[in-house]
Amino acid sequence: MLGCYPTGVAVMATRDRQGASVGLTCNSFTSVSLSPPLVLWCLALYSPSLPAFLDTPHFSINILSAGQSALSRRFSAPISDRFEGVEHTTGAGGIPLITGCAAYLECRNETRHYVGDHVIFIGHVLRCARSTHKPLVFSEGQYGALA
After folding, report:
1. How many structural domains does the chain have?
2. Pairwise CA distance, residues 73 & 131, whole Å
């Protein structure tokens, strides 16, 4: 049922305790508040990336552009180094910011809530930027772009 609800596609990214970049594809992302600027996203309790996001003071939300569906697939695949060969810069606390995105948000890891089989992360947006690229959209198992 929820597959018919179109969503944007983002890569959440941070660094683990060893300094390695960690990222995953996510479409459970939304705005919570404008003042202060807060956003939320959800991560499954069984995700191998969970410890890195629980430990980090900062994370980025890289809103993928229409031409980045391959990155969406890459960051949802079970590979050891998802950032290998992915062009990116660094933001607050060294968090990865993927090049070519429609937008990105640099967030302080404000709080988290355990609900069912997921953790809801709430981030305080410290900085954000957008490009002229159209965002990537996902619906009914297909990638697309807004007209």
Report:
1. 1
2. 22
